[in-house]
Amino acid sequence: MNYESNDLQKNVEKMTGSHLNNIMQLAVFYTANYEIYAINVAKIQNFVILDEINIVPNRDSKSVIKGVAQVRDELVTFVDLDSWLGMPKYDPSVFTAGVVCNLNCRRIGFFVRDIIGILDKYSFELKIPDSRELKILYVTSVKIGDQEKPCAVFDVERLMIDCGFPTEMPPFTPPKEFSAFISKKVLIAEDSGSAARKLTDFFDSLGITHELYPDGAALISRLDSIDIDEVGLVVTDIEMPVRDGFQVIAHIKRSEKLNRLPVVVNSSMTSGGVVEKVKRLGAVDLVNKSDPRALFELVKHYMGNMENADV
């Protein structure tokens, strides 16, 4: 399926601001080798037609980084997704479009043979592979013609790490003037083991009690049973199994018991559409996972008793 650039962008804007059902919107595409892969639409900043951009090539033939190009007044690093996934060599002329992602306020693009479409998938249709060595987050299926074909949702955060882009929270040391005397706790939803450890270290360094849950459903269950006076803040990722961060925010803000709780989104998905959506749902802000100082400022503001922390 071929799209014009502006039609693709309208689809991205529509999907990142779409409904709150337990659905992930996927942009599904063919790689150069006609493999079917997908990416969460919320991670996409825009699509580009390759004929409309000029790429300054990377002369290192062994690198998966192919070069940089200016896309809508921003420099974007483009990578060879096929090579990163371990696929055979291909003729570069087969590509027709590029996909630009915005994660942790960094932009990375990759080339596709063709866009198949943008599809909705319920969480139960997304299977998590046993091995993360596959470089994929989920396996599902898509209908091509009259046939159901396997489709893999690749791990774009891992791609960025492999290309030298940091995506996780660096170590954080509170300012010397800081001390917290806080009786309330923070409830956290984060499905990534490494990101969860970083958040645990972060709140341990602040001396703030916290509870960690592996998905939005587990966090919501805890919120529905806890004495709400014990909770000072909710921190949630967006892309999680069972129930995602959008649904966490919506549940809290629709609940008479919970709706005064401040919610901070801690995510690598930092495109303008995602930030706008979480704020529209009622979150106080979105901070990217690689910016612990921004998270600290929000914790300081919403948890209270930290007015003397001079940062």
The CATH C-level name of the largest domain is: Mainly Beta
Give the helix tally: 8
CATH H level, superfamily name of the largest domain: CheA-289, Domain 4
Overall SS class: alpha/beta
What percent of residues are in strands?
25-35%
CATH architecture of the largest domain: Beta Barrel
| Overall mean pLDDT | 87
Order of helices and strands: HEEEEEEHEEEEEHEHEHEHEHEH
Give the C-alpha Rg: 20 Å
Instruction: Write down how many β-strands occur, each being a DSSP E stretch of 2 or more residues.
Output: 16
In oligomeric terms, what are we looking at?
single chain
Helicity range: 25-40%
Distinctive features:
OB fold (Dihydrolipoamide Acetyltransferase, E2P), Rossmann fold, alpha/beta, 2 domains, single chain, 6-stranded mixed β-sheet, 25% helix
Write structural notes for this entry.
- The chain folds into two domains: 5-162, OB fold (Dihydrolipoamide Acetyltransferase, E2P) (Beta Barrel); 185-303, Rossmann fold (3-Layer(aba) Sandwich).
- 25% of the residues lie in helices and 32% in strands.
- It has eight helices and 16 strands.
- It has helices spanning 5-16, 81-84, 156-162, 193-206, 216-225, 245-254, 272-281, 292-303, and strands at residues 23-30, 36-40, 44-49, 55-57, 65-71, 74-79, 97-103, 106-112, 114-122, 136-144, 147-154, 185-189, 210-213, 231-236, 263-267, 285-288.
- The strands form three sheets. Strands 3-7-8-6-5-4 form a six-stranded mixed beta sheet. Strands 9-1-2-11-10 form a five-stranded mixed beta sheet, covered by helices on one side. Strands 13-12-14-15-16 form a five-stranded parallel beta sheet, sandwiched between helices.
- Strand 10 and strand 11 form a beta hairpin.
- Helix 5 (216-225) packs parallel to helix 6 (245-254).
